[in-house]
Design brief:
There is one protein chain. The model is unreliable at about 215-225 (pLDDT under 50). With about 230 residues, this protein is of the alpha/beta class. It is globular, with a radius of gyration of 20 Å. About 40% of the residues lie in helices and about 15% in strands. The longest helix is centred in the N-terminal third of the chain and has 21 residues, at about 5-25.
């Protein structure tokens, strides 16, 4: 029988736990603060930032938003990041992507202090993840691992297939699964025989935007991976 993973219920549980942790920090005189930078006027990004603000408000994290114009220069963006790196009241920095094409997003991510890099994109955090040290991890891969943990889905010794190799989801998720002692195969746009590979998976995660990438047929029965 299939197990339905209820992401909304789990998210509510996690937020409640975080609310208690934040309250404990406040009792110690620490007010956690997240600074979010958005460059330009991308409508989807505006929604994401608004949702982040609501989540912070719900659990008691201070939220400071920096809205920069579309024509913001490289120097202006990097100077702001450096200012936030040096602010003791700011504990986490998040640069909302995408940013305008005239700016180098990798350079901007790398400019954020790895100690405040809540997205886990800084090379130091990527390296720490690779060797199994504690570090910030991209939110979606961390969420996937949290769901597996919450529903007692064993990873040790299991065959896990990750479809997608992006630096935001696929790669860090593959590393997290390796760190949890799974045997991991990463598939991507150049992989041949994806359907055959996915048939052997105990755990299958599609970390791409395309649907039905691993359609497969078992006689008259057909299942799709989304």
């Amino acid at each position: 029988m299939a197990t339905i993973i209820n992401g909304k219920e789990l998210a509510a549980k996690v937020r409640l736990e975080l609310k208690e942790e934040v309250a404990e920090l406040k009792r110690k005189g620490i007010q956690p603060k997240l600074a979010v930078i958005m460059v330009g006027n991308d409508s989807a990004s505006a929604v994401y930032v608004r949702n982040k603000s609501k989540a912070c408000d719900e659990i008691g994290i201070a939220f400071e938003e920096f809205l920069l114009k579309e024509d913001t220069t490289r120097e202006e963006l990097l100077n702001l990041i450096e200012e936030l790196n040096n602010r003791e009241d700011v504990h986490g920095i998040l640069l909302q992507s995408p940013i305008p094409k005239h700016l180098d997003i990798r350079e901007a991510f790398n400019a954020i202090s790895y100690k405040k890099d809540v997205d886990g994109f800084h090379p130091i955090n990527v390296g720490k993840l690779a060797i199994g040290e504690e570090c910030f991890v991209s939110c979606t891969p961390a969420g996937v691992m949290k769901m597996l943990e919450e529903y007692h889905i064993e990873t040790q010794g299991k065959s896990a297939v990750v479809i997608g190799r992006s630096n935001i989801v696929g790669r860090p998720l593959a590393q997290l699964l390796i760190n949890s002692n799974a045997t991991v195969t990463v598939c991507h746009s150049k992989t041949q025989n994806i359907a055959e590979i996915t048939k052997k998976a105990d755990i299958l995660v599609a970390a791409i935007r395309k649907t039905k990438i691993c359609d497969r047929k078992y006689g008259k029965r057909r299942s799709s991976c989304y």
